[in-house]
Amino acid sequence: MRQWILVFLKGMAMGAANVIPGVSGGTVAFITGIYERLINALKSIDGKLLKLLVRGKLKQFSQRMDLLFLLCLGGGVLSSILTLAQVLKYCFAYYSVYVWAFFFGLIFASIYYVGKKVKRWNGAPVVAILFGAGVALGMAFLKPGTEDSSFFWLVICGMIAMASMIMPGLSGSFVLLLLGNYQLVMIESVSRLANGDLAAACRVLLPVGIGAVVGLLALSHFLSWIFRSFHDVAVALLTGFVAGSLLIIWPWKQEIKMTLEALGKVKEKTVGYEWFWPSSNGETFLAIGLMVLGGLIVWAMERFASKENSV
User: Fold this and answer.
1) Total number of domains constituting the chain
2) pTM: predicted TM-score of the whole model, two decimal places
3) What count of other Cβ atoms lies within 10 Å of the Cβ of residue 175?
4) C-alpha 200: how far from chain center
5) Domain boundaries, position 256
6) Among the residues of 142-168, which ranges form H helices?
7) pLDDT of residue 308
């Protein structure tokens, strides 16, 4: 029973993290040690799984899909979105530096413990972590592309956006922005859907949805294979993604925003940042204290987990 409560709490952390730009649910899954299990559960969604369901073999269906794990995790995510995430959203709106600082401390401290999962730090893992960090850092400096509503490009956008959502350190909405189709997909099409213009909305959302499903299934199979075949390289690569995302999570920065408007709906979207060093004042010292608190929480969790494993 205790393990399912922990999975539920980790789901809550994933749900809360999705409120903070640059802190993805995949990052939380990775640093809390459930990422590989989540990928394997998603990978199980295939023809064999559907056959078990159709034939009424519910026990085998549940075991193959790791259904109890997914239900506990999903329940935690949903409950967090309905409760904790709303509080966090308020804090982020009025005390953003403190929220950024707390998550910065959490993720910074986690990098060390996650990196310890690499059994041998030879050439390949070193290249992988540098490559992952470079990709995550590079994305912070990219500029948004131009809009493209072609069917093929929308499928590609869906694939890449979904893949980024389950990759630690990468934001799906930010990737859509870089690909040039954030306004088309997330504002115009969603607004048309809400206004009852189903045909126009589906012309965009259907190919994006197809791409998202293909991206989810393809990436989950690929990641499961790479974890199984090249575990150290996979862990190092994802650790690099998380480490590179620290630049976006850095508390002291000025957001560069773009105003997007469609069908009477106006939304501001962050398209970049200008970073700076903090001043020596009370706010800075409190933020540093929250960084330290985040790191201590990770340390305490690791100590607790190691004691549990030794029993």
Assistant:
1) 1
2) 0.75
3) 21
4) 29
5) 2-310
6) 151-166
7) 52
